[in-house]
Design brief:
The complex is a heterodimer. Chain A is α/β, with parallel strands linked by helices. Chain A contains 16 helices and 14 strands. In chain A, helix 11 links the parallel strand 9 and strand 10. In chain B, helix 7 links the parallel strand 4 and strand 5. In chain B, helix 2 packs parallel to helix 12. The chains are: A alpha/beta, B alpha/beta. The structure holds pyridoxal-5'-phosphate (PLP). Pyridoxal-5'-phosphate binds next to helix 5, helix 11 and helix 15 of chain A.
């Protein structure tokens, strides 16, 4: 169970590490030293699992999607992370990190958000525990994910618009890091994906690993086997994918597929498909694959989906891709929109635009009738209704 | 290289000759104009600045406040690249004597190739590097030998949160000077230096480290400069200098009048 785990020094193969300026060293080091003890403590585990059960509503269903299965002539299960409280997988991580923040004695929280799902999940756990919450969000993302901005505000969070760069997730992450530099003592930074300096990628992956833990049990109940033939997830920074893959990483017979956002197409210059377009580099505290110019400047990414609109990817995924354990692929805005509409009309489920990217790959796979496919439905589409309505009106 | 040549480093020379009131200035290459680099460097030296930090602009400068974020953004828009900067600095050693330091976030240097970067800096006559997001562990285990082989001082930051054990380790592993970050913050001028900050400077001073100390972040006028110098060898001015040259048509005049205002 070691091959794809982080090593002693915070690396997955050559990716990872903690590339932070000295201003953040003390905080990151404290986390590094303490996170495993805190997480492995039974009182932490009890609190974490009780909240996941009674507050978040876990376990989320593993639903056999009959009509989509018929359409693709195979057997498709949806892992319903969209049914979590707040509507996405993001809350698995924020529940874990808010308990951790308490153990660390922090009374303020800062977070970045793209789609707003992580922001809402963070604002939610802050309300739950009475901690002060500041969320940085790119101005473009505030416009395209407006309902989530309103939710965060109602939950009592301060939402700060970010005006630099393309005004999206990368820029919000820069600003959250600056906030942490300026407030190191009382503030914990709840990173929303398996990115950032060690130990964040490992810590977030552990919190999200509940997804594959449940898939194993639920699949066994329904199919008398723990392992499907495929697990499919979308990837922004990679947290829902890390969670859905986690307990299958060492089961080499399970094909793991990660779907990135191609935006308008990977050759158009308007894309966020990091594995397809990136190169080795250092961004937001870890060495990974990032989209960059020959001069080492970060390329502004593009995707219709705010949660996938990021020029990097977690170091675990860079490693999994390099080792060939996970197959990375990508779908365009348009393919994702079509897949969202299809799921809505065949199954009565409106997925998040992010999750729609995972669904869109189904039509491109060579699936057998007997194959068992699990798609991680990372979130629901309420936040994306404006975008969907515009798409539907245009298609008419 | 001539075998009997004594290898010296201009940063070491400076601190050997002078112990007090050393003034270092940071600027972003490519700002306010793409071709301002040599003009700024020569005029800083003529105005009596002791040491210069040449900033390589980066798209995502997380340790910087608004002013330097802006100068990075403009410099990149102006078309500045590492290769262009090296070209502009090709014969800078025919024009200035004072120590020169390159400051960059890690990714542009990493992409260029760390060894190749050090080699090029050495050829040009650069004396040290500041790479804020290259942590001590990585430096020690992967890059120290490379830096040493090119006589390139690696200068690290120390903050109010850095504990003594780590400060001593930084002191042992790095060279040139220690960059004492004045408070827990991103770059940018805040005006006055508080008593608490003075206590912190004294605390580090009293550790009697091997390397001299320069205070940076939030030093923007004569008063803060003088205060920062009380327990240290000197201070570094960044954002305030960037603002001073931001709107200038006459770079030469604005550089010299700003430095005068600090040294007066
Ligand atoms: C529903 C949903 N899925 C996926 C993502 C992408 O993040 P990650 O790759 O970390 O799962 C987001 C991010 O906001 C999201 O809201």
């Amino acid at each position: 169970m070691k091959k794809f785990q982080v090593d002693q020094n915070g690396y997955y193969g050559k990716f990872g590490g903690a590339y932070v300026p000295e201003m953040l060293f003390a905080n990151v080091e404290e986390l590094r030293i303490r996170y495993l003890d805190i997480l492995n403590d039974s009182s932490f585990q009890n609190e974490f699992h009780a909240l996941l059960k009674h507050y978040v509503g876990r376990p989320t269903p593993l639903y056999f999607a009959g009509r989509i299965s018929d359409k693709y002539n195979t057997r498709i299960y949806l892992k319903r992370e969209d049914l979590n409280h707040t509507g996405a997988h993001k809350i698995n991580n924020t529940i874990g990190q808010i308990i951790l923040a308490g153990r660390l004695g922090k009374n303020k929280i800062v977070a970045e958000t793209g789609a707003g799902q992580h922001g809402v999940a963070t604002a939610t756990v802050c309300a739950l525990t009475g901690l002060e919450c500041t969320v940085y969000m790119g101005k473009l993302d505030m416009e395209r994910q407006k309902p989530n901005v309103e939710r965060m505000k109602m939950l009592g969070a301060r939402v700060v618009p970010v005006l630099s760069g393309n005004q999206t997730l990368k820029d919000a992450t820069n600003e959250a890091m600056r906030h942490w530099i300026n407030n190191p003592e009382d503030t914990h930074y709840i990173i929303g994906s398996v990115v950032g300096p060690h130990p964040y990628p490992d810590m977030v992956a552990r919190f999200q690993s509940v997804i594959s833990e449940e898939i194993k049990t639920q699949l066994f109940e329904q199919e008398s086997r723990e392992n499907p033939d495929y697990v499919i997830a979308c990837v922004g920074g990679g947290s829902n994918a890390a969670g859905a893959f986690y307990h299958y990483l060492e089961c080499e017979e399970v094909v793991l597929i990660a779907v990135e956002a191609a935006g308008k197409g990977i050759t158009t210059g308007q894309s966020a498909a990091t594995i397809a377009l990136g190169a080795e580099g250092v961004l937001h505290g870890s060495k990974s694959i990032i989209m960059q110019t020959d001069d080492g400047q970060i390329v502004e990414p593009y995707s219709i989906s705010a949660g996938l609109d990021y020029p990097g990817i977690g170091p675990l995924h860079a490693h999994l891709s390099e080792r060939g354990r996970v197959e990375f692929t990508h779908v365009t805005d348009k393919e994702a929109l079509k897949a969202a509409l299809e799921l809505a009309q065949l199954e009565g489920i409106i997925p998040a635009l992010e999750s729609a990217h995972a669904l869109a790959i189904l039509s491109k796979l060579d699936l057998k009738k007997s194959d068992l496919v699990v798609v991680n439905l990372s979130g629901r589409g309420d936040k994306d209704m404006d975008t969907y309505i515009r798409f539907i009106n245009k298609e008419k | 290289m001539n075998q009997i040549e004594v290898i010296t480093n201009k940063i070491e020379d400076l601190f050997y000759r002078r112990k007090k009131r050393i003034l270092s200035v940071y600027f972003t290459a490519g700002y306010p104009k793409i071709d301002a680099t040599a003009t700024i460097i020569t005029n800083l030296e003529q105005s009596g600045v002791d040491l210069i930090e040449i900033g390589i602009p980066f798209s995502d400068p997380v340790a910087d406040g608004d002013t330097i974020q802006h100068s990075n953004h403009v410099a990149l828009k102006n078309g500045m690249t590492i290769r262009m900067l090296f070209d502009q600095l090709r014969d800078i050693r025919n024009r200035v004597e004072i120590p020169l330091i390159m400051m960059s976030y890690l990714n542009p240097v990493y992409k260029y190739g760390i060894e190749k970067f050090c080699k090029k800096c050495h050829e040009i006559g650069i004396d040290g590097l500041i790479i804020p997001d290259l942590p001590l562990y990585e430096f020690e285990t992967k890059y120290k030998a490379v830096f040493d082989s090119f006589n390139m001082k690696f200068i690290m930051l120390v903050t109010p949160q850095t504990d003594n054990e780590r400060i001593r380790k930084i002191d042992f592993l790095t060279g040139g000077f220690i960059y004492l970050v004045s408070s827990t913050s991103t770059t940018g001028s805040k005006g006055k230096i508080s008593n608490e900050q003075m206590q912190y400077f004294k605390r580090i001073h009293d550790l009697r480290l091997n390397n001299p100390l320069l205070v940076g972040f939030g030093i923007g006028n004569k008063e803060s400069f003088v205060n920062a110098c009380q327990y240290t060898a000197g201070a570094i001015i960044g954002s305030a200098f960037i603002r001073a040259v931001s709107k200038s048509d006459d770079l030469k005049a604005s550089v010299s009048s700003f430095i005068k205002s600090i040294k007066a």
